[in-house]
Design a protein that fits this description.
This protein is globular. By secondary structure, it is mainly beta. Strands 18, 19, 20, 21 and 22 form a five-stranded antiparallel beta sheet that branches. A four-stranded antiparallel beta sheet has the order 1-29-28-27, with no helix packed on it. Helix content is 0%, strand content 52%.
Protein backbone atom coordinates (compact mmCIF):
# COMPACT_ATOMS: atom_id res chain seq x y z
CA UNK A 1 0.00 0.00 0.00
CA UNK A 2 2.98 2.31 -0.44
CA UNK A 3 1.75 5.77 -1.34
CA UNK A 4 -1.97 4.95 -1.01
CA UNK A 5 -3.87 8.22 -0.54
CA UNK A 6 -7.58 8.76 0.02
CA UNK A 7 -9.16 11.30 -2.33
CA UNK A 8 -12.83 11.04 -1.34
CA UNK A 9 -14.92 9.12 1.17
CA UNK A 10 -18.59 8.69 2.02
CA UNK A 11 -19.36 7.23 -1.40
CA UNK A 12 -22.12 4.62 -1.79
CA UNK A 13 -20.31 1.58 -3.21
CA UNK A 14 -18.18 3.42 -5.78
CA UNK A 15 -17.19 1.61 -8.97
CA UNK A 16 -16.09 2.29 -12.55
CA UNK A 17 -13.61 5.16 -12.14
CA UNK A 18 -12.95 7.09 -15.37
CA UNK A 19 -10.04 9.54 -15.63
CA UNK A 20 -11.47 12.61 -17.37
CA UNK A 21 -9.52 15.07 -19.54
CA UNK A 22 -9.91 17.83 -16.92
CA UNK A 23 -8.15 15.76 -14.24
CA UNK A 24 -11.30 14.76 -12.37
CA UNK A 25 -12.47 11.20 -11.84
CA UNK A 26 -16.03 10.28 -12.75
CA UNK A 27 -17.38 7.13 -11.09
CA UNK A 28 -20.59 5.27 -10.40
CA UNK A 29 -22.10 5.08 -6.92
CA UNK A 30 -24.02 1.86 -7.44
CA UNK A 31 -25.98 1.93 -4.19
CA UNK A 32 -27.06 5.54 -4.80
CA UNK A 33 -27.99 5.09 -8.47
CA UNK A 34 -25.76 8.06 -9.19
CA UNK A 35 -22.84 9.14 -11.39
CA UNK A 36 -20.44 11.36 -9.43
CA UNK A 37 -17.49 13.54 -10.35
CA UNK A 38 -14.61 13.64 -7.86
CA UNK A 39 -12.46 16.72 -8.26
CA UNK A 40 -8.71 16.63 -7.58
CA UNK A 41 -9.22 18.29 -4.18
CA UNK A 42 -11.75 15.61 -3.14
CA UNK A 43 -14.92 17.64 -3.64
CA UNK A 44 -17.76 15.73 -5.30
CA UNK A 45 -20.59 16.78 -7.57
CA UNK A 46 -23.44 14.84 -9.15
CA UNK A 47 -23.16 14.27 -12.90
CA UNK A 48 -26.35 12.25 -13.43
CA UNK A 49 -28.86 10.06 -11.61
CA UNK A 50 -29.70 7.12 -13.89
CA UNK A 51 -31.14 5.07 -11.00
CA UNK A 52 -31.06 1.28 -10.89
CA UNK A 53 -27.49 0.10 -10.55
CA UNK A 54 -24.96 2.08 -12.60
CA UNK A 55 -22.03 -0.31 -12.59
CA UNK A 56 -19.54 0.23 -15.45
CA UNK A 57 -18.54 3.46 -17.17
CA UNK A 58 -16.40 4.40 -20.15
CA UNK A 59 -15.85 7.61 -22.06
CA UNK A 60 -16.97 7.17 -25.67
CA UNK A 61 -15.53 8.73 -28.83
CA UNK A 62 -18.46 11.19 -28.88
CA UNK A 63 -17.50 12.58 -25.46
CA UNK A 64 -20.47 10.96 -23.74
CA UNK A 65 -20.26 8.50 -20.85
CA UNK A 66 -21.51 4.99 -21.59
CA UNK A 67 -22.95 3.14 -18.61
CA UNK A 68 -23.61 -0.52 -17.87
CA UNK A 69 -26.65 -0.43 -15.58
CA UNK A 70 -27.24 -3.71 -13.76
CA UNK A 71 -30.80 -2.77 -12.75
CA UNK A 72 -30.09 -2.62 -9.02
CA UNK A 73 -29.07 -4.69 -6.01
CA UNK A 74 -30.34 -5.16 -2.50
CA UNK A 75 -27.77 -4.09 0.09
CA UNK A 76 -26.49 -5.24 3.45
CA UNK A 77 -23.92 -3.91 5.92
CA UNK A 78 -21.53 -6.23 7.73
CA UNK A 79 -18.44 -5.33 9.74
CA UNK A 80 -18.80 -1.73 8.66
CA UNK A 81 -18.81 -2.67 4.96
CA UNK A 82 -21.61 -2.00 2.47
CA UNK A 83 -22.15 -5.03 0.23
CA UNK A 84 -24.53 -5.96 -2.62
CA UNK A 85 -26.94 -8.75 -1.76
CA UNK A 86 -28.90 -10.21 -4.68
CA UNK A 87 -31.19 -8.49 -7.17
CA UNK A 88 -33.22 -5.47 -6.10
CA UNK A 89 -36.84 -6.24 -5.30
CA UNK A 90 -37.92 -3.92 -8.13
CA UNK A 91 -35.32 -5.23 -10.60
CA UNK A 92 -36.78 -5.58 -14.11
CA UNK A 93 -33.63 -6.01 -16.21
CA UNK A 94 -30.41 -4.25 -17.09
CA UNK A 95 -29.48 -1.76 -19.76
CA UNK A 96 -26.79 0.17 -21.60
CA UNK A 97 -27.16 3.92 -21.17
CA UNK A 98 -25.52 7.01 -22.65
CA UNK A 99 -24.99 9.99 -20.36
CA UNK A 100 -24.21 13.58 -21.26
CA UNK A 101 -21.52 14.54 -18.72
CA UNK A 102 -22.46 18.24 -19.08
CA UNK A 103 -26.25 18.18 -18.80
CA UNK A 104 -26.67 14.85 -16.98
CA UNK A 105 -29.21 13.66 -19.55
CA UNK A 106 -29.55 9.85 -19.54
CA UNK A 107 -30.59 7.92 -22.64
CA UNK A 108 -31.26 4.18 -22.60
CA UNK A 109 -29.73 2.55 -25.70
CA UNK A 110 -30.19 -1.19 -25.18
CA UNK A 111 -32.20 -3.51 -22.95
CA UNK A 112 -31.96 -6.57 -25.21
CA UNK A 113 -29.74 -8.11 -27.87
CA UNK A 114 -32.34 -9.63 -30.14
CA UNK A 115 -34.37 -11.95 -27.93
CA UNK A 116 -31.72 -11.98 -25.18
CA UNK A 117 -32.54 -9.72 -22.25
CA UNK A 118 -29.67 -7.84 -20.63
CA UNK A 119 -29.69 -9.08 -17.05
CA UNK A 120 -26.91 -7.21 -15.28
CA UNK A 121 -24.51 -5.34 -17.56
CA UNK A 122 -21.31 -4.80 -15.61
CA UNK A 123 -18.30 -3.34 -17.41
CA UNK A 124 -17.32 -2.13 -20.88
CA UNK A 125 -14.36 -1.17 -23.05
CA UNK A 126 -14.23 0.73 -26.35
CA UNK A 127 -12.10 -0.44 -29.29
CA UNK A 128 -10.29 1.56 -31.97
CA UNK A 129 -13.24 1.12 -34.37
CA UNK A 130 -15.58 3.06 -32.08
CA UNK A 131 -17.55 0.03 -30.88
CA UNK A 132 -17.53 -1.41 -27.39
CA UNK A 133 -17.52 -4.76 -25.64
CA UNK A 134 -19.43 -5.30 -22.42
CA UNK A 135 -19.94 -8.05 -19.90
CA UNK A 136 -23.31 -9.10 -18.51
CA UNK A 137 -22.70 -10.31 -14.97
CA UNK A 138 -26.28 -11.54 -14.62
CA UNK A 139 -28.28 -11.57 -11.41
CA UNK A 140 -28.24 -13.78 -8.34
CA UNK A 141 -31.51 -14.85 -6.74
CA UNK A 142 -32.32 -16.88 -3.64
CA UNK A 143 -31.78 -20.26 -5.34
CA UNK A 144 -30.60 -19.47 -8.85
CA UNK A 145 -28.01 -17.48 -10.77
CA UNK A 146 -28.03 -16.32 -14.38
CA UNK A 147 -25.75 -17.75 -17.05
CA UNK A 148 -24.61 -14.89 -19.24
CA UNK A 149 -21.87 -13.73 -21.61
CA UNK A 150 -20.20 -10.87 -23.45
CA UNK A 151 -21.81 -8.53 -26.00
CA UNK A 152 -20.52 -6.17 -28.68
CA UNK A 153 -22.08 -2.90 -29.84
CA UNK A 154 -20.63 -1.56 -33.09
CA UNK A 155 -20.13 2.11 -33.99
CA UNK A 156 -23.55 2.19 -35.68
CA UNK A 157 -25.26 0.97 -32.49
CA UNK A 158 -25.96 -2.63 -33.51
CA UNK A 159 -25.76 -5.04 -30.58
CA UNK A 160 -24.98 -8.79 -30.63
CA UNK A 161 -24.04 -11.47 -28.14
CA UNK A 162 -20.45 -12.47 -28.95
CA UNK A 163 -19.40 -14.94 -26.22
CA UNK A 164 -21.57 -17.44 -24.32
CA UNK A 165 -21.66 -19.00 -21.76
CA UNK A 166 -19.56 -17.51 -18.97
CA UNK A 167 -19.82 -17.66 -15.18
CA UNK A 168 -20.74 -14.15 -14.03
CA UNK A 169 -18.33 -12.23 -16.30
CA UNK A 170 -17.21 -8.96 -14.79
CA UNK A 171 -14.04 -7.08 -15.78
CA UNK A 172 -13.21 -6.65 -19.47
CA UNK A 173 -10.32 -5.09 -21.37
CA UNK A 174 -8.33 -5.14 -24.60
CA UNK A 175 -4.64 -5.92 -25.06
CA UNK A 176 -2.41 -2.99 -26.12
CA UNK A 177 -2.59 -4.03 -29.80
CA UNK A 178 -6.37 -4.55 -29.62
CA UNK A 179 -6.25 -8.16 -30.86
CA UNK A 180 -7.04 -9.91 -27.57
CA UNK A 181 -10.02 -9.47 -25.28
CA UNK A 182 -9.65 -10.28 -21.57
CA UNK A 183 -12.63 -11.23 -19.39
CA UNK A 184 -12.60 -11.90 -15.65
CA UNK A 185 -15.22 -14.18 -14.10
CA UNK A 186 -16.21 -13.20 -10.57
CA UNK A 187 -17.00 -16.35 -8.61
CA UNK A 188 -14.58 -18.67 -10.37
CA UNK A 189 -11.84 -15.99 -10.06
CA UNK A 190 -10.60 -16.94 -13.53
CA UNK A 191 -9.18 -14.70 -16.24
CA UNK A 192 -9.89 -15.69 -19.86
CA UNK A 193 -8.53 -14.40 -23.16
CA UNK A 194 -10.28 -14.35 -26.53
CA UNK A 195 -8.40 -13.68 -29.76
CA UNK A 196 -10.16 -11.31 -32.14
CA UNK A 197 -10.45 -11.26 -35.92
CA UNK A 198 -11.75 -7.69 -36.01
CA UNK A 199 -14.34 -5.46 -34.36
CA UNK A 200 -16.90 -7.67 -32.63
CA UNK A 201 -15.45 -10.87 -34.11
CA UNK A 202 -14.09 -13.56 -31.78
CA UNK A 203 -11.80 -16.12 -33.34
CA UNK A 204 -13.15 -19.66 -32.82
CA UNK A 205 -11.34 -21.37 -29.96
CA UNK A 206 -10.18 -24.95 -29.76
CA UNK A 207 -9.78 -25.27 -26.00
CA UNK A 208 -11.79 -27.29 -23.51
CA UNK A 209 -13.86 -24.30 -22.37
CA UNK A 210 -17.30 -24.21 -23.97
CA UNK A 211 -17.01 -20.51 -24.76
CA UNK A 212 -13.79 -20.97 -26.74
CA UNK A 213 -11.60 -18.79 -24.54
CA UNK A 214 -8.04 -19.43 -23.46
CA UNK A 215 -7.39 -19.82 -19.74
CA UNK A 216 -4.92 -17.19 -18.52
CA UNK A 217 -4.92 -17.21 -14.71
CA UNK A 218 -6.94 -18.36 -11.71
CA UNK A 219 -6.73 -16.96 -8.19
CA UNK A 220 -6.47 -19.37 -5.28
CA UNK A 221 -7.87 -19.07 -1.79
CA UNK A 222 -10.72 -16.79 -0.82
CA UNK A 223 -10.85 -14.45 -3.82
CA UNK A 224 -13.35 -13.18 -6.36
CA UNK A 225 -12.49 -11.18 -9.47
CA UNK A 226 -14.14 -7.85 -10.19
CA UNK A 227 -13.26 -5.25 -12.83
CA UNK A 228 -9.88 -4.73 -14.47
CA UNK A 229 -7.55 -2.32 -16.22
CA UNK A 230 -4.58 -3.00 -18.48
CA UNK A 231 -1.23 -1.27 -18.42
CA UNK A 232 0.88 -0.25 -21.40
CA UNK A 233 3.05 -3.37 -21.04
CA UNK A 234 0.00 -5.65 -21.31
CA UNK A 235 -0.34 -6.60 -17.62
CA UNK A 236 -3.97 -7.26 -16.67
CA UNK A 237 -4.67 -5.60 -13.32
CA UNK A 238 -7.73 -7.27 -11.78
CA UNK A 239 -9.50 -5.90 -8.71
CA UNK A 240 -9.72 -8.84 -6.31
CA UNK A 241 -12.48 -9.10 -3.71
CA UNK A 242 -11.92 -11.07 -0.53
CA UNK A 243 -8.15 -10.85 -0.69
CA UNK A 244 -8.57 -7.08 -1.00
CA UNK A 245 -6.26 -5.69 -3.64
CA UNK A 246 -5.17 -5.75 -7.27
CA UNK A 247 -3.87 -8.94 -8.91
CA UNK A 248 -1.35 -7.94 -11.58
CA UNK A 249 -1.23 -10.71 -14.21
CA UNK A 250 1.48 -10.71 -16.87
CA UNK A 251 0.61 -11.51 -20.50
CA UNK A 252 2.14 -15.00 -20.05
CA UNK A 253 -0.39 -15.78 -17.30
CA UNK A 254 1.92 -15.48 -14.30
CA UNK A 255 1.11 -13.38 -11.26
CA UNK A 256 3.55 -10.48 -11.49
CA UNK A 257 2.39 -8.76 -8.29
CA UNK A 258 -0.41 -8.41 -5.79
CA UNK A 259 -1.05 -4.88 -4.54
CA UNK A 260 -2.90 -5.08 -1.23
CA UNK A 261 -5.51 -2.53 -0.16
CA UNK A 262 -7.33 -2.05 3.17
CA UNK A 263 -10.78 -2.95 1.78
CA UNK A 264 -11.83 -6.54 0.93
CA UNK A 265 -14.32 -5.04 -1.54
CA UNK A 266 -11.72 -3.51 -3.83
CA UNK A 267 -13.65 -3.44 -7.10
CA UNK A 268 -12.02 -1.41 -9.87
CA UNK A 269 -9.22 0.88 -11.00
CA UNK A 270 -8.24 3.21 -13.81
CA UNK A 271 -5.04 4.99 -14.76
CA UNK A 272 -4.65 8.74 -14.98
CA UNK A 273 -2.42 11.66 -14.12
CA UNK A 274 0.83 12.53 -15.92
CA UNK A 275 1.77 9.69 -18.30
CA UNK A 276 -1.05 7.64 -16.70
CA UNK A 277 1.30 6.66 -13.85
CA UNK A 278 -1.35 7.00 -11.11
CA UNK A 279 -3.83 4.24 -10.28
CA UNK A 280 -7.23 5.42 -9.06
CA UNK A 281 -8.85 2.58 -7.11
CA UNK A 282 -12.40 2.15 -5.77
CA UNK A 283 -12.65 0.73 -2.26
CA UNK A 284 -16.34 0.00 -2.47
CA UNK A 285 -17.12 -1.56 0.89
CA UNK A 286 -15.73 1.42 2.78
CA UNK A 287 -16.95 3.93 0.19
CA UNK A 288 -13.62 5.48 -0.83
CA UNK A 289 -11.73 6.54 -3.92
CA UNK A 290 -7.96 6.31 -3.42
CA UNK A 291 -4.90 6.83 -5.58
CA UNK A 292 -1.36 5.54 -5.62
CA UNK A 293 1.69 5.69 -7.88
CA UNK A 294 1.86 2.77 -10.33
CA UNK A 295 5.15 1.23 -11.49
CA UNK A 296 4.12 1.16 -15.16
CA UNK A 297 2.00 3.59 -17.20
CA UNK A 298 -1.57 2.59 -17.84
CA UNK A 299 -2.72 1.77 -21.34
CA UNK A 300 -4.19 4.72 -23.23
CA UNK A 301 -7.83 3.82 -23.80
CA UNK A 302 -9.60 4.11 -27.13
CA UNK A 303 -12.22 6.85 -27.05
Amino acid sequence: MTGLEEIAGGLRFPEAPVAMPDGSIVLAEIAAGRITRVLPDGRTETVAEPGGGPNGLALGPDGFLYCCNNGGFEWTEQLGMLMPHGAARDWAGGSIQRIDPTSGRVETLHTHAGAVQLRGPNDLVFDAAGGFWFTDHGKTFARSRDVTGVFYVDSAGHIAEAIFPLENPNGIGLSPDGTRLYVAETYTAKLWAFDLDGPGRVRPGTGFAGHGGQFVYGAGGFAWFDSLAIDAAGHVCVATIGAGGISVIAPDGTLADFVATPDPFTTNLCFGGPERRTAFITLSGSGKLVRMPWPRPGLKLAA
